[in-house]
Specification:
224 residues, alpha+beta, nine-stranded antiparallel beta sheet, globular
């Protein structure tokens, strides 16, 4: 069970070390140079209240393109990023925003196993992943993932001093990097995800961006 519950969006999300207003402005500046060429525009909606309600507003999930993006303050330093892609939040924007803003960013995966109740097939394999970016460059990558039934572990880059290196050598591969360890690492990096569950009021704001335009013939919406 995940320590912090983002419901349907636990599987993957991003974090950018900058206030939410600054992050969304940078994202808009980036996207508004790209989207018009494809016949799309973004509309911005300011959000207050509970993160859970804002996450519901991201639905439905879509493919092959993302149509909704949510930026939500964890605190004055860190901003959460989610999108409504059917395969989970895209890893690209946190790294791009890290580069554009000259700040740190993180991609987090806390995916539980999901089994289709009708077919009995696994539709999502469990994984725990941390990717840390600085100025757009990936500095650290740690993962444990069930790759189609086989557990795999890996780590790249220079370890942080706070890491539990002994855990990476335990016999059980799936226990080498757990959700609890990931949360602990995030706190060492200055991110307390439980703060995101606070009810937002002025002057703190979240931002929901919605993409509008003619969708491709392959466009689909998915019910969770």
């Amino acid at each position: 069970m995940n320590i912090v519950d983002f419901g349907k969006f636990n599987s993957s999300f991003g974090l950018v070390k900058s206030p939410s207003k600054v992050v969304v402005e940078s994202f808009l500046s980036w996207q508004q140079k790209i989207l018009p060429d494809w016949g799309f525009e973004l509309k911005l909606e300011k959000r207050q209240g509970k993160l859970g309600d804002a996450l519901i507003a991201l639905c439905p999930r879509t493919a092959p393109i993302v149509t909704r993006y949510l930026f939500w303050p964890v605190d004055e330093n860190w901003t959460l990023y989610f999108d409504n892609g059917v395969s989970g939040t895209d890893a690209g924007p946190p790294s791009v925003l890290s580069s554009r803003l000259g700040v740190d960013a993180i991609r987090v995966v806390m995916a539980d196993e999901v089994i289709d109740p009708v077919s009995g097939q696994v539709t999502q394999y469990p994984a725990t992943i941390l990717e840390f970016y600085s100025n757009g460059v990936e500095r650290r990558h740690i993962f444990v993932a069930n790759d189609g039934g086989k557990w795999k572990f890996g780590e790249l880059g220079e370890p942080f001093l706070f890491e539990n290196m002994a855990a990476y050598k335990v016999r059980s591969i799936k226990d080498r990097f757990t959700n609890a360890m990931l949360h602990s690492y995030l706190k060492e990096l200055g991110v307390n995800l439980s703060n995101a569950n606070s009810v937002l009021t002025e002057p703190d704001l979240g931002y929901l961006l919605t993409k509008h335009g003619k969708m491709p013939a392959s466009y689909k919406e998915f019910k969770d």
